Amino acid sequence: MRDLPETKIRGSRKRAVVAAIRNFGRPFTTEQMFKICSDMPKPISRATLYRILRTLREEGTLKDVFLPHGQQVSIYTKSAIVCVVECADCGLYANCPGISGSLASAMEGTELEPTLTAIFLRSRCPRLTDCKKLTEQEEGVSF
Fold it and tell me: How many Cα atoms sit within 13 Å of 123 on the Cβ side?
């Protein structure tokens, strides 16, 4: 993923959280990440996770997107423009770097310098079988 930031990550717990975020590979809620981190061989507490996520936000590598229906998702990226797609069938979130990249290209050469521009789309998973498979993997995680 070319939009992933390259940061100097110190501390084994922080490295574990960043690895979990990268492995998850799409926008996530804090609760989703807590479920993953609490199931690790060396579980990470909620307080530690919140501190690590706050540090990543302060470094600028974790972006928060507040969705219209009140949900907040986070995206690990170096891009200032992000597009979040929510599946209308299963409720899972995905990052849409193609749209984000197109907007970034369109803004080049202008005086606009976004600190964070977020776009929210509601659509359907491209293939229903993928949607069902992902939903089964996420069983027990609230959206």
Answer: 13
Helix (H, G, I), strand (E, B) or coil at 117: strand
Note down the domain range covering 38: 12-137
At a CB cut-off of 8 Å and minimum separation 6, what does 57 contact?
A: 63, 64
| Residue from 45, 51, 52, 42 nearest 14 by CA | 52
Taken as a whole, the chain contains a residue count of 143
Q: What is the pLDDT of residues 51-108, one digit of tens each?
A: 999 999 998 889 888 888 888 889 888 777 788 888 888 778 887 777 777 777 777 7
**pTM to 2 decimal places:** 0.69
If one counts the domains in the chain, the total is 1
Q: What is the CATH number of the domain that holds 69?
A: 1.10.10.10
Distance CA 90, CA 54 (A): 28
Q: 66: closest CA among 30, 98, 32, 22?
A: 30
Pair 5, 74: CB distance under 8 Å = no
The H or E element that residue 52 is part of is helix 46-59
